[in-house]
What we know:
Layout: H1 13-22, H2 33-47, E1 54-60, E2 66-72, E3 75-77, E4 80-86, H3 90-97, E5 100-107, E6 112-122, H4 125-134, H5 137-145, H6 155-168, E7 180-194, E8 202-207, E9 216-220
Antiparallel strand pairs: 1-2, 1-5, 3-4, 4-7, 5-6, 6-7, 7-8, 8-9
Helix pairs in contact: 5-6
Amino acid sequence: MPDQTLIPPSPSQADYEAAEQAAAASLDPSRDPLDLFAEWIAEAVKSEPNDPNAMTLATVDADGAPDGRIVLLKALDARGFSFFTNLNSAKGQELAANPRAALVFHWKSLHRQVRVRGAIERVSDAEADAYFATRSRVSRLGAWASDQSKTLSEPALLRGRLEAIQQRFEGIEPPRPPHWSGYRLIPQVIEFWRDGAFRLHERLVFERAAEGSPWSARRLFP
């Protein structure tokens, strides 16, 4: 039977008061949300012990059933949020069936969260090639060896495939596999959440009708 004591208790009065004192000024609705996000993730890089660029990617399959997993943000610009994967993976198939997704960033050290929703597009071959070239050699070889999300009967099978791929590309740089690329989420909604004392959290959501349209902002009850 699970031990109930493993569940953390609610924050105490002292915890809330300390958090309230540490909070900065209210979020500014006149900001560009992508600029604000860039500032927040830069702060997370300094405070998070690992993977400040980790994000939950939520998708739905062809039947509308939801799915989610942690992936790493690898590029951020005015167009949106980019990540890379095997196109034949579960997420790749789900994005092919329904090219819309949601992202969630949670930085525990900062008591902050960002939620993003929008349409998905494939990155260009040049972008995919450029990122693939930055990966370690074994990671690049692994992209050739792994049938991501498919059933693996035994670990030895993957090791054997990796050894075969190593021999295939011995002495040369492994190119990007045709089944490996990236996606960009073009944000339509971005919500910033900051922990507030006594669970009176601050929430500021930015929305736009389409890519290139102006952003509007509104505050939400916690």
